[in-house]
Amino acid sequence: MDIKEITKPVREHLDEFDKYFKKMMKSKVSLLDLIVGYITKKRGKRVRPTLVFLSAKISGGISERTFVAAAMSELLHTATLVHDDVVDESSERRGIKSINSAWTNKIAVLFGDYLLSRGLLAAIDNDEFDFLKALSLSIKRMSEGELLQIQKSKEMTFDEEVYFKIISDKTASLIANCCQIGAMSATDDTAIHQTLYEYGELIGLAFQIRDDIFDYISKRRQIGKPVGNDLKEKKITLPLIYSLNQAEKPEAKKILKLVKNGNLKKKNINTIVKFVTDHNGIDYAKQKAESFADEAIAKLDIFEESEEKNTLINFAKFVINREL
Questions:
Q1: Which helix H or strand E contains 252, and what residues bound it?
Q2: 232 CB-near residues (< 8 Å, 6+ apart)
Q3: Which of 2, 137, 222, 243 has the greatest CB tally within 10 Å of its CB?
Q4: What is the pLDDT of residues 86-141, one digit of tens each?
């Protein structure tokens, strides 16, 4: 199943959401409109709005509140991507120049701030303070996760516990909140809110692990960034963490030194990829991702059979089998 099939049950709502989102983003500042047009031209997979709508649908039904929730999640997500590209000095995003590369770091930071403010105002203007609280907690976790990763990258002291803490905060928290506020837009049942939050958290963990695997196995054209990009930024992810723990100390020390020195050449990246493959790091990471996806699917047992339930189940499977 591909992403088009995943979005099918809510495609009509997503098409309506695209118009709603563009209207919300309209500004009197021509530079802002230019940048908005630039980022919306290369539309992503709309994963987060899809999760908001599916979570609302399975919880009782899609309403105007659901559109506000979807807009808030998309604004927050896009703002973090823009800021991340500045922090990581990335030149590309989804196969096109990043905002900081197409314009400047200053413009990118200010544009990210603008997106964040629009998300906050969407909540305030519609009196959706529960949404605001949920997403503010997500912003807090994402910032903490990013700073923890920067700290650990400098110290080069990664283990599985730290890794899962980082990806839970950086990636899974927002996906969890998308599912949570989608449910909140449809029902007051806090048990349903919590269940879908936990589903989203587990999906987010599986999603990020799959992303981290791509750094070792994919081609640039598939993921829109160079293979080994995480390694160049001294980001030690699950495939390498596991492999370092499995290897003999001298060999592990040699590989860790390569990463620590930075400025990795192609031959260095190939050496690290072979090391990870030889020590089953990729297979181990795949097994972990599959385990999280299975846990997520089990969370949906409280819901009756429906098209949206089957879609959320298939989304969990899609996350671990996707090729980009």
A1: helix 249-261
A2: 226, 262, 263, 264, 269
A3: 243
A4: 887 888 777 788 899 989 999 999 999 999 999 999 999 999 999 999 999 999 99
From the CB of residue 266, how many other CB atoms can be counted at a distance below 10 Å? 10
- Distance CA(320)–CA(268), nearest Å, equals 28
- Residue 267 class from Cβ within 10 Å (0-12 exposed, 13-18 middle, 19+ buried)? exposed
Any residues with CB less than 8 A from the CB of 181 and at least 6 apart, and which? Answer: 52, 69, 72, 73, 130, 131, 134, 135
Is pLDDT above 70 for 1?
Answer: no
Instruction: For residue 301, report the phi and psi dihedrals to the nearest 5 degrees.
Output: -60, -20
Question: In Å, how far from its chain's centre is CA 179?
Answer: 13
pLDDT tens per residue, range 152-201: 888 888 899 999 999 999 999 999 999 999 999 999 999 999 999 999 99
3-state percent helix, strand, coil for the chain, nearest multiple of 5: 80, 0, 20
* CATH code for the part of the protein at 3-321: 1.10.600.10
